[in-house]
Design brief:
The structure is a homodimer. By secondary structure, chain A is mainly α. Chain A has a single domain, classed as Rossmann fold (3-Layer(aba) Sandwich), CATH 3.40.50. Chain A contains seven helices and four strands; from the N terminus they run H-E-H-E-H-E-H-H-E-H-H. Chain A has a two-stranded parallel ribbon. In chain A, helix 2 links the parallel strand 1 and strand 2. In chain A, helix 1 crosses helix 6 and helix 6 crosses helix 7. The longest helix of chain A has 16 residues.
Chain lengths: ~220, ~220
């Protein structure tokens, strides 16, 4: 499974455990400005006692084209934490990111004899990224079974995206229910040097608005 | 386009030029035992005067599961250069490699405003790798157009695989016809330290058999 250090993927990890899977997690150090999330991923993996956790290096700064990997670009901010998140694809979109990360997970899985992949995408309260939509997830699963020895020899891969149809509030509720260390997860795209969140990027706003709704 | 330093991708580069494309090439330093191919890729890019050439670092040794990235595994060899290549998937198969490399090419292309991707796979005289088959190529093109901003906003990507239906002899003939610096390309999976080829791995055998046929 892909573990970012954010709320969603941490929830997927705990969900997989509840479903009875032995969970092997993969994080990618891709030159993201919020690389602090990798520390969160390590803490979450330890906290949930995952079977193992790898951090792969894949520097996407050379690819460019995203506010998350290009420090010259600015992360778009709302005027307040309660400003709704637009459904236009924002500049934080990283070209081909989920395709790449899922390909890495696929290689890892096939080399280790695993056939279940998982990712924490959701397509309700999200930023409109194309590679978070159910059509993309279904298409990647098909590709995985054409691309690999396991797939074409009749031992197919399944790609789990259990948060796909949940709202952010539902994810938050599920996280608490499953005992996810929610306080250790970090969703912010543009954290300050001391590790505190900006509170205004799309990712902070989606999460803060869900937290407010949950506590109402 | 993906440029490995081998005969096939060099031929694709020259083919794209003949078709009128400005060619931007991507090579991946993935911990392959035949990393000498990266030097060949650089020479070919210079020789053909490609628009640019990037070498990305993505260490797949941590993924494992392949004789090309695991030095403890042996590259399978034939008894002689003329021994036919089996159609069983050999241990030189690298899990998810073409999916990963095409994802990188897709990210590069989208970040730069390009919409044509190209790869030098062929599925006639090949090693039976699942991610070289036409079904895989077609499926990746579909995925690319679901995974990206450009794809979903109606500026689709095309994935060119012009060698798909050619035999190795036909590729060699095309390479000469297009002025590819054939002598600078390297196909061997297990070259000696001095850069000379082993002559017995599947890749050497496919190429040597084609060269013999061409010179008959």
């Amino acid at each position: 499974m892909l573990l970012s250090g954010g709320l969603d993927s941490a929830t997927v990890a705990a969900w997989l455990q509840r479903e009875g899977f032995e969970v092997h997690a993969l994080s990618v150090d891709y030159g993201q400005r919020h690389s602090i999330e990798l520390n969160a991923a390590r803490e979450i993996a330890a906290d949930l006692k995952l079977a193992d956790h790898h951090v792969l290096q894949l520097d996407l700064r050379g690819v460019g084209g995203s506010a998350l990997t290009d420090l010259e670009m600015e992360v778009p901010k709302g005027k307040s934490p309660t400003e709704p998140v637009s459904q236009e694809i924002p500049t934080t979109y990283v070209p081909a990111r989920n395709t790449l990360f899922l390909s890495l997970a696929l290689g890892f899985a096939e080399a280790r004899g695993a056939h279940d992949l998982a990712i924490g995408v959701n397509a309700l309260d999200y930023s409109g990224y194309p590679d978070c939509r159910p059509e993309f997830i279904a298409s990647f699963e098909k590709l995985a079974n054409l691309a690999t020895r396991e797939g074409i020899e009749g031992r197919p891969f399944r790609l789990h995206a259990p948060l796909q149809d949940l709202t952010k509030v539902e994810i938050l509720r599920l996280a608490h229910e499953l005992g996810v260390p929610v306080d250790k997860t970090i969703s912010c795209y543009d954290p300050r040097e001391d590790g505190s969140i900006c509170g205004l990027c799309e990712s902070c706003r989606l999460r803060l608005q869900a937290e407010m709704e949950l506590n109402q």
